[in-house]
Structures are given as structure tokens and as C-alpha cells.
Specification:
The protein has three helices and seven strands. The chain is of the alpha+beta class. About 3% of the residues have low confidence.
């Protein structure tokens, strides 16, 4: 079977450590991990350590859609690797790698100082997807999730 790979990137105005930690704190995670219109989070449980597991129960039209996996690599604040299993992967394990690369924006200047603003390039690579439909569904979901992370981060940093 031909395995497919999806890559989604988003520049977010926050430092890598804050963004990285947002992925491993169940309370914060449930506030921003929104994969699309009408989809909510019913519950999140996490054991954020290599070999630890997570369960994200998304809710859509009154139905609970479980998403689960196991943490493989937790390299704060650079890289997070975990398996991902859901109805959208046909309940098969796939692999997700999220990297956080700090970028300095020297163009952001205030009248009093030339303070640099930190942005982070968040890159998400989802491997072992089995069809173009899975790529399309996950592209939409992961893009919405990274957009939600960006908006949530803006709201807490104001």
C-alpha cells in the first residue's frame, strides 16, 4: 500500500516553549485543539512522556470521536512525535511529528526600542496516511488546529 505524507506549516507569534507546552497540558490543549467548524472537545487525557498515551474525545453532532496515540519523542521545545489513531485513519496507527523552530523578526520596531518579536514556525508532518481522502481530511483538520493554536496563543499573550 502506498503510504502518503501530509505537511502543514504555520508561523505563530509566540516562543517555541509556550507553543510546545500547549500540546502537553490537557487543560490548555482542550481550549485550542479544534479541528473544524462544529467540532468540540468532550475530554482530553494525557500522560506526556515517551511511552505515555493520550486520548482526545472530539464531539460532533452529539457523537464522540476518539483520537488516541502514544508519545514517542518529547524534545522540549523542539520536537514532538506521537502515533495518531482515529476513525479518519481507519483506526490504524499513523505517525505525527511536530517541530517548533524559533524565528526572530527584526522588522518589528517600537518607537522606544527595536525589540525583536519572536515567531515560531510550527511544522506538522503526518505520515502513513493511506489515501488521498485521508490527506484531504487531515489537511483540513491540522490546518484548523494550527490556526486555533495561533488564535488561542494571541488571546493569552495580549
Amino acid at each position: 500500500m502506498d503510504r502518503k505524507i501530509l505537511k502543514v506549516e504555520k508561523r505563530i507569534s509566540a516562543d517555541p516553549t509556550k507553543l510546545f507546552r500547549a500540546w502537553l497540558n490537557a487543560k490548555d490543549f482542550s481550549l485550542w485543539f479544534l479541528s473544524g467548524e462544529g467540532i468540540g472537545i468532550e475530554s482530553v487525557t494525557m500522560d506526556p512522556r515517551p511511552g505515555g498515551r493520550f486520548l482526545i474525545n472530539m464531539e460532533l453532532d452529539g457523537k464522540i470521536l476518539p483520537h488516541s496515540g502514544e508519545y514517542i519523542t518529547i524534545d522540549e521545545p523542539h520536537k514532538l512525535v506521537f502515533t495518531w489513531r482515529s476513525h479518519a485513519t481507519e483506526n490504524r496507527d499513523t505517525l505525527v511529528t511536530v517541530t517548533f523552530e524559533e524565528e526572530k523578526d527584526s522588522k518589528h520596531e517600537t518607537k522606544k526600542s527595536s525589540k525583536q518579536k519572536t515567531t515560531t514556525l510550527v511544522t506538522l508532518i503526518h505520515e502513513d496516511l493511506s489515501s488521498d481522502l485521508q490527506i484531504k481530511m487531515h489537511n483540513h483538520g491540522w490546518t484548523s488546529i494550527l490556526d486555533s493554536l495561533s488564535h488561542w496563543m494571541e488571546s493569552i499573550l495580549e
